[in-house]
């Protein structure tokens, strides 16, 4: 395929699919992260939620999220990512709105858990979906624009939620913010197809070229018969633990940032919303820049560990400053938030480059499920430490240590295609290939 034609086809796919993927994941993240604003905006007071219960509720989402990652990816790989995401959009929109109807804290437990269950399918399904459409040199950017829905959503959600809380209340905020996911489900169903060969907006020549290049990418990889071999892959296991530690820092930050800023600055909820948005603006810029240079150099690992190291140092700096200078400490939190988000695109581009398509989606799902477990730990322990100590210092050092562990594990990763699948079947396959 000529380079000019290839660039045109790539641009066509990006313009059609990436905005749709972005909006879809944005809505998922919107209905996940607005809990932190509800808690800071009166829900905890109205429902008599103690600090310990608040920590558990914020973390309970990730427990549900943990269990259904791999089944979701398997369904998307074998059947239909399109159908799975469509059903998930409707269900999580209903559950998100139902949060605003609760008058007893007991109802929040099943709602938060099942919201996690429903949303757990979305990330692996979307990664499988994008891997069906984009080539190696495009994948980090495609993944980044998907996950960009995370910081960009929190950026505008922080501001919108602050105003909704002021104009309505926390109940109105949840009810209103659950509706867009239900409406978008029908746009998703109309606009996307699972694979290029099903798309009516591509020419037959474009479909054949994409299929040919996808097939060419798979030639250098040894086939893996099933998921058992995937779990013996040293790289997959290291990245799973790495993502666990990384997610402790990310979601300890996301779920408690509004409460920490409000407590430290003594500002109202609208000002807190604006201040909470700044880290996600930096994250948006960082994610785009890092994914661009990662695809340009085809270097994934370096961009991941360097970004996370910057986040580690920033958290540690906030710990050292303490409450003596709010604005300096806040500036370091902005840097920490931006740095933690920046390398998501390169990170999730690693699996499709070292494992064949029949298991790479499930490998990403396994890694993401470990991230969900880390998110549970981060959201719960950060909330617990803030309540138990009466300050944010202990939680800052906790998040710094977690990120440092993820940096060290990233440095241990081998990202070449051989992927260390040293099972008897693969050793035999290698011998045949030779």
Give structural notes:
The chain has 19 helices and no strands. Helix 1 runs parallel beside helix 8 and helix 2 packs across helix 12. The C terminus is likely disordered. The protein is globular, with a radius of gyration of 21 Å. It has 434 residues and is mainly α.
E-strand count: 0
Shape: globular
Q: Unreliable segments (pLDDT under 50, ≥5 consecutive)?
A: 417-434
In terms of quaternary structure, the protein is: single chain
Average pLDDT: 81
Largest sheet: none
What is the N-to-C succession of helices and strands? HHHHHHHHHHHHHHHHHHH
* First-last Cα distance: 29 Å
Secondary structure elements and pairings:
Elements: H1 3-33, H2 35-46, H3 51-67, H4 69-99, H5 108-120, H6 122-131, H7 136-147, H8 149-167, H9 170-191, H10 204-218, H11 227-230, H12 234-265, H13 269-297, H14 301-321, H15 326-341, H16 344-354, H17 357-389, H18 393-411, H19 424-433
Summarize this entry quickly.
By secondary structure, this protein is mostly helical.
Which terms summarize this structure?
single chain; 434 residues; mainly alpha; 19 helices; globular; disordered C terminus
